[in-house]
Amino acid sequence: MSGGRTTSSTREVPGPTAPHGFSGHLVGFVEALRARGIPVGPSETVDAAQVVTVLDLMDREVLREGLACALLRRTSQRTTFDGLFDLWFPAALGERLGAEEVEIPRKPDGEVDIIELRKMLAELLVQDPTGERAQQLQMLAAQMVEEMGQYQSASGPSFSAYQAMKDLQPELLVSKLLAGLAAGMDNSDFHTEVARRTARQRIKDFRGTVEAETRRRVAERLGRERVATYGVARQAEDADFLRISENELAELRRSSQRLARVLASRLASRRRRARRGEIDLRKTLRKSMSTGGVPIKLETRKPRPGRPDLILLCDISGSVAGFSSFTMLMVNALREQFSRVRIFAFVDRVDEVTHLFDQVTPLDQVTRRIFTESKVVGIEGHSDYGSALKGFAENYPDAVTSRTSLLILGDARTNYRDPELNVLRTLADTAKHSYWLNPEAEKMWGTGDSAANRYAEIVEMHECRNARQLTTVVGRLLPI
């Protein structure tokens, strides 16, 4: 299938083909979406099948938009969708026909002339990258992958986007693009900033074009299913907190309020069911004496009124900072579900940071404000759970009561220091509920300097490696 109406070669693609023709191919695409965390049900699949019956299948971009409208529910799913679409509906098969029309500049000895190639790319990026220019950029990317990105792997020839781009270094073109884009504009700070962002975005888009071309070529050799497992962006909710990228963290930041609304609805539903009360067996049997012991009407105990207090004790050091900050932000959005929410943060010292959440704070600023406006770091600045627990118990003795639900966030890595198990045991015995959310895989608990196994003997510990898992666990554990 062509990109737009781009001509492609007719080289056969190795690997299995979809059964039952195009319908089977579409079902395989839907299954790939599900595997990457996008919920696509039977009704959406039927809608997609109906959509393709009225579209021009030779216009790849129209097909992309039609399937996106039928299969996606949220805009945050679009990046993953586009990556899988490019694998299941590639712009070409094998080496692109017409790519040779865009010649890569070369030196007399036949080597690629990187300086001239940069100039060529700059000229293409300065102009509006749509229509014919977009086609030329795609052909240039294809040529670069074919000639500069090919290498010999242990299993045969393969392609690498890094190999294709490492010598070119398109980021060096920002100044040239800025000069070209700013031509004809005034020199105001506003227009300069617009030109700078445009330049960076066009370079980023070209890098993405090279990466997409590389995935297409590698998928032909290894199979699209295999490439999809590592070459397509994950849903931000499935990203591992300890390895999350800046883009995925930014996406989580945008979705924190939505996840909070999901949790709030679950808690409200659980609270409505809880108002019915548990069955009072004694009253039910006494009530049924008039019917010969047959319980016609069930009597229930009256539920105890009042909403519980919630205490968050969060490690914000190192790689767990993103996990803790996101969880604090999400739980803070549930304040109306509890009579009181207090948030404490620590590295090797603990301090209350509840007041920092009184105003709406972006996720990327939460940790920065905690470090600059509170006292969470002592002399060394390394994680010390024992010191933090002891300081919490001594400095905030009234924080945990019999009405409190205590939620501890962290990987329980103590840097081989005293974990102060007795202090945690006292807090857990005082609190009504106590849970520990750990962003590390359970198989890593107790390894190295991890005291997770020892803490888990005192407090119920749950693995929360990504936002989807966190939402499920928190929605199940939070008290009503």
Describe the structure.
The chain is α/β, with parallel strands linked by helices and 480 residues long. The protein is built from 18 helices and eight strands. It has helices at residues 21-35, 42-52, 60-71, 78-88, 114-126, 132-147, 161-165, 174-182, 189-222, 224-231, 246-274, 281-287, 321-332, 363-373, 385-395, 421-430, 452-456, 467-477; strands spanning 150-153, 156-159, 309-315, 340-346, 350-352, 404-409, 433-438, 460-463. It has a six-stranded mixed β-sheet with strand order 5-4-3-6-7-8, with helices on both faces. The protein has a two-stranded antiparallel ribbon with strand order 1-2. The longest helix is centred in the middle third of the chain and has 34 residues, at 189-222.
Entry keywords:
six-stranded mixed sheet, alpha/beta, 480 residues, disordered N terminus, 18 helices
In brief, what are we looking at here?
By secondary structure, the chain is of the alpha/beta class. The chain has helices at 21-35, 42-52, 60-71, 78-88, 114-126, 132-147, 161-165, 174-182, 189-222, 224-231, 246-274, 281-287, 321-332, 363-373, 385-395, 421-430, 452-456, 467-477; strands at 150-153, 156-159, 309-315, 340-346, 350-352, 404-409, 433-438, 460-463.
